[in-house]
Amino acid sequence: MTESKEEKVVDIVHSEAVDDPADHHAPGTFVLVLVLLGTFAVYYFANWKALADVWHVR
Amino acid sequence: MANTATLGAAPEAEDSPATPEKPKGNHRAGELRSCDTTGLPICLVAQQFIRLNAVMAVVFLLVGGISALLLALTRWPAVHLLSAAWYYRILTLHGLNMLIFWILFMEVAILYFASTTLLNSRLAWKSMAYVSFGMMLVGAVMVDYFVLAGKADVLMTSYAPMQGHPGFYLGIILVAVGTLIAVGNFFATLYIAKRDKTYVGSMPLVTFGALAAAIIAVVTLAHGAAVMIPTFLWSLGLVGAPDPAWYRLIWWGLGHMSQQVNVCAMVSVWYFLATLTVGAKPINQAVCRGAFILYILFINLASAHHLLVDPGVGAGWKIWNTSYAMYLAVLASMIHGFTVPASVEVAMRKKGHNSGLFSWLAAAPWKNPGFSAFFLSLVIFGFGGGITGVTLGTEQINIIAHNTLRIPGHFHMTVVGGTSLAFMGLAYYVVPLLFQREYYARGLVRAQPYVFAAGISIMAIGMSLAGSYGVPRRHWDVEFAGAQFSAGFDPSAHVMLGIMGIGGTIAFVGLLMFILLTVAAVFFGKSNAGKAMTAW
Question: Residues of B numbered 291-320 whose beta carbons fall under 8 angstroms of chain A's beta carbons: which are they?
Answer without folding.
Answer: none
